[in-house]
Amino acid sequence: MTIADAQCVATWLLLQQNINSLATDLQSMVFAGASILMDTIQGYCSKTGMPLSEFKSRGQLLDGTSVPVGPGCLVLYNHALPVGRRRFTIAHELGHVYLGHKQRGVQQENEADWFAAQLLMPECIMMELWSRNGWLMQHEVSDWFMVSGAAARHRIGEMQRKHWYHIGEQELELVQRYLPYIQEELKNPYLVSV
Question: Which residues of the chain have pLDDT under 50?
């Protein structure tokens, strides 16, 4: 797998969804081609009697993990995380599942991060917003896509460093499906850029 593959898989998964806002609805996702259940780590431990300590690393509760269960997978996330970070964690774990990661190394973590960024802040949608708005501000991206400020800042930085963007049929279709929500956000009279 490559970063480009991760982006393509996330784009394909987005096209399987009922898009009804700029922010991807992770809780109502259609998991095409995969059997995935989601729960909080806390809820899973409560239901199964497994101690929370099983999900700790260096004394801290994990942000999330994915656990194979029969032919499917269980994505677990820490409910105590702020919403934006929790959403990125869920998308990251979905990346591990959809990218078929059997082990976790630096390359797999980078691929899962790229998948999560594309699932939550699709590059073609960010480019459309940038083109129409003339800029991308961290706080706007964070609000539009319900991600943390850090994730928004990182994604904007990645886009500023790129010298080319792939716009194929899937990306054009995605832009068309997001267009009403892009237009809605950009005409918002309460949109304030600093």
Answer: 192-194
Strands 72-77, 36-40: parallel, antiparallel or unpaired by DSSP? Answer: parallel
The pLDDT assigned to 33 comes to 80
Q: Helices 123-133 and 169-186 meet at what angle, rounded to 10?
A: 50
Residues in the chain: 194
* pLDDT tens readout for residues 128-159: 999 888 888 999 999 999 999 999 999 999 98
* Three-state DSSP state, 191: coil
Task: Tell me what pLDDT residue 190 has.
Answer: 55
Confidence at residue 103, expressed as pLDDT on a 0 to 100 scale: 86
- H or E, element range at 72: strand 72-77
**Angle value at C-alpha 20, between 161 and 151, nearest 5 degrees:** 30
Q: 129 vs 8, 24, 152, 158, 187, CA distance in Å?
A: 20, 16, 13, 15, 12
Cβ–Cβ under 8 Å, residues 194 and 137: yes
- Is the Cβ–Cβ distance between 56 and 65 less than 8 Å? no
Cα–Cα distance measured from residue 30 to residue 19, given in angstroms and rounded to the nearest whole number: 11
At position 140, the amino acid (one-letter code) is E
Q: Are 40 and 52 in contact (CB under 8 A)?
A: no
Q: Please give the Cα distance from 84 to 100 (Å, whole number).
A: 25
